[in-house]
Amino acid sequence: MTTQPPATPEQPLAPEPAPVPAEPAKKKRSIGKTILSIVVAIAAILFWKLGLPYLTGDAPVSAKVGECVTVTGPENDPEVSTKPCGEKVPDLYKVVKVIDDTFDVEKCGDVSEVALAQQLESYKFVLCLNPVK
Which of 13, 19, 20, 104 qualifies as a FRET site for 5, CA 20 to 30 Å off? Predict the structure, then answer.
């Protein structure tokens, strides 16, 4: 007769790994909020590129022929502003010609006594000016 080994209690199972926490559910952005964000971003960029220089006074004065401007400040960074031609102010000039897409002040030729090149971003032009007497 053979004897069987005594029965042993069952071996405990290996502990189960701790459950992995599920990633928090991502918040779904509504289409309206996404579109609003894009519109706000575009408006901010346009304001920065187009509106800010005009508010800070850094935009060039784009006067038309026949209008008057004053030119003050240093020659390498003049400040130009439009004024009524009848106003009695120093450094008042009348615009006799406007030449777009250039910095060449020589293009004013004999038309004017003073030429002033202006630029903002890619917009550049020359104002041909004569002093108002």
Answer: 13
